[in-house]
Amino acid sequence: MRLLIISGSKSLGKASQYFVAEGKRLFETVLLVPLTSIRVELNGKKPMLYYKNTDLTKFDACLPRLFAEDFVFGEVVLDILQSSEVYLPTSSEA
What is the pLDDT of residues 10-50, one digit of tens each? Predict the structure, then answer.
């Protein structure tokens, strides 16, 4: 299983590194991605999310660490992940 951790504007510190370390105990792959490094592509069928060349919609679960400052783009990213059936512990509305 693969875990995606999305870090918002204030969450690239020690706490994120803790989540990565703990995630590696439970998941085969753990990827920490800054929200500002995610790109959205529209391929005609549905929107896709990429970090570099990695398709983020192919992960099994996502732990978003977002804050009020991240709301506008963060909501879009979480909506796309949710529609791609990536498990999220919270909804984009939360």
Answer: 766 777 788 899 999 999 999 999 999 999 998 888 899 99
Q: In whole angstroms, give the CA distance from residue 46 to residue 2.
A: 22
* DSSP line for 7-64: E-TT--SHHHHHHHHHHHHH-SEEEEEEGGGEEEEE-SSSEEEEETTEEGGG-SEEEE
CATH architecture of the domain with residue range 2-83: 3-Layer(aba) Sandwich (3.40)
The domain locations on the chain are 2-83
Question: Global pTM?
Answer: 0.89
